[in-house]
Specification:
This protein is an alpha/beta fold. It has 9 helices and 13 strands.
Length: 298
Amino acid sequence: MHIKLGTRGSKLALAQTNWVKERLEQEFPQHTYEVVIIKTKGDLIQHKALDQIGGKGLFVKEIEQQILDTTVNLGVHSMKDMPSEPANGLCFTKIWLRADRRDALVLKQAKSLEELPCGAVIATGSKRRIYQLKALRPDLQFVGIRGNIDTRLKKMREGEIDGLVLAAAGLHRLGMEHLITQYLDPQREMVPACAQGALALEIRQDDAALREILDSLCDEQTQREVQAERAFLQEIGGGCHTPAGACAFQREESLTLTAWYGTTDGQRIKRDTLSGNVEDAPMLAKTLAQRLKNEVDV
């Protein structure tokens, strides 16, 4: 079988896709593999904030169409960017072991969040990150930023920006973890985006042979944790631009879910945690989402 992997052309997207390709080559050397770069709407429009140009699916629709057209067999995405449900005719396979789920600070000079001077400027396009950092340091200023990681780092070095907030997973996948100044605790400092660090492998629903291959490399704990986080997001009614996050940790037969939710303007934000049996994770996610919605959506 010749398997074509569709991906965006950014350095991070290619790193993720090549990691998937290498894993498949290692485990299933009897097949051949090819990476196909696909331009998406989110890549083509760089001068506007993401929440101004369309919401869900900005980085996936063109890839999904090529899977449906059988131009490619498999789409590789960041799961945190994916809508609650794939396009008609497509499905997500089981989830592989995810990378570091935490958010990270990359600072120009300061050695920690606490050491940033009063009024320091942090660049991020995420309201989830802005509002949680404001809770820790109300004096900070925030500016939006777009572009790949290299572009963002260049803007920090050359501009009036004191730091960036980035997903640790992306920096690790690019071999740039040495640039991380501080990791933010996912339960006490900054609840990450739902499914952060996990990859979404998307195929046609009727492609049973490829599904069997991809599912065989599933990490069961990651699967359960990500399912709980995405169940929370679905219940909260959020997409990739809703100020919301969730982080599930499984320990033996217990699962602890920490979630964060806020209004778009950041006037009301809440964080809460629930624990229960891992088998009850969907109900746990639903209960926590309803509790936060009742507290925030008043």
